[in-house]
Amino acid sequence: MLEVLLTFAVILVVFLVLPLIIGQVEHKTMAHMQSRLGPMYAGGFHGWAQLIADGVKFAQKEDIIPAAADRRIFMIAPGVALVPYLVVMIAIPLDDGLVGVDLDLGLFFVLAVMGVGVLGSIIAGWASANKYSLLGGMRSAAQLMSYELPLVLAASSVAMAAGTLSLPGIVEAWQWWWLPWQAIGAVVFFMAGLAELRRPPFDMPIAESEIIMGPMTEYTGMRFALFMLSEYVGIVVLSFLTTVLFLGGWHGPLLPGWLWTLAKVFLLAFVVIWLRVTFPRLREDQLQKLAWAVLVPLALVQLALTGVVKVVI
To answer: Where are the transmembrane segments (predicted)?
Structure first.
């Protein structure tokens, strides 16, 4: 019993600290790539206290609820956006034997619960009594429906290859030659995951230049901070799942397994940040075309290729 509690404690600490670290890294990366000096001043050396300054700023903001809003739904929406990602973490392995719960249907569990997190944005847009917020919520719903299919198809290809739906089982079955074999699925999964997180260039539901801040337009203070935290927790979860499914999880030479997992996660998180800085936002028609005309066919090709290889081998 004590060992189980310690395992849960380690995993909880890792998964709660990582989003904060990635948020800090995003500040610094964007500052360097875009010559933005602001994040370099808070706290002196290299702006080490920028994250603390942001936290203090959010805590000091007034908590405002629009008069026409559905108060109860408005208040719980940030929690609906954040909690599913925290629940998902119990099934993601950090190392061999270091996992909260090894579920036989772990992959189905993770994908199902991740889909719930998007509902936070949808109900926030509806409850805000703001047309811009509602438009952002509807865009979130359309984006979820479009990109859930390629996400699930790409993950199914790995499950077929490993012969199990257990996430630790998939890592144990992984071989180095899966890197080229499952490369198409990896790209599809990662891009579809970015779209579900509404990260640039897939941030049409937010689109500051068009609908202000989408579903979060009316949110202030700590409720807005929870939405921001859910985004960074989502980046952590997406990076971990991509690592577990396509990059071999804890497999790697010389270093401890958990260190290899974290190294791959940070590499993928950097790619997420890099894409935000580099690529412009897609139009809504481009967003849908990419999902249905590109990613879905590629995911089906990967699924068929996996089936052929499994039959031949």
So the answer is: 6-25, 73-94, 106-128, 149-170, 176-195, 232-251, 257-278, 290-312
Task: Kindly tell me the sign of the dihedral angle through the C-alpha atoms of 144, 145, 151, 152.
Answer: positive
* pLDDT, position 3: 65
d(CA 189, CA 237): 13
Instruction: Provide the sign of the torsion angle of the four alpha carbons 77, 83, 88, 94, taken in this order.
Output: positive
Query: Residue 109 domain-assigned?
Result: yes
Residue 178's region, left for phi above 0, alpha for psi from -120 to 50, else beta, is alpha
- The domain in which residue 178 lies consists of 2-19+71-312
Amino acid making up residue 141: A
- Cα separation, 112 vs 119, in Å, equals 12
CA atoms of 311 and 308, how far apart (whole Å): 5
> What is the total count of domains within the chain?
1
8 vs 263, residue with greater confidence: 263
- The whole-angstrom separation of Cα 201 and Cα 135 is 18
Token output for 84: 């599913």
In the predicted model, what is the mean pLDDT of the chain? Answer: 86
Does residue 38 register a pLDDT over 80?
Answer: no
Q: Is the pLDDT of residue 242 over 70?
A: yes
pLDDT at 298: 95
Token pair of 267 as six digits: 């590499």
How large is the average pLDDT for residues 282-305?
91
Residue 261 lies in a domain: yes
Rounded mean pLDDT, 10-26: 77
Report which residue type is found at 74: F
* Residues 35-63, mean pLDDT to the nearest whole number: 78
Residue 10 has which token pair? 């380690």
Domain contains 27: no
Hunting for tokens 């640039």 — which residue is that? 200
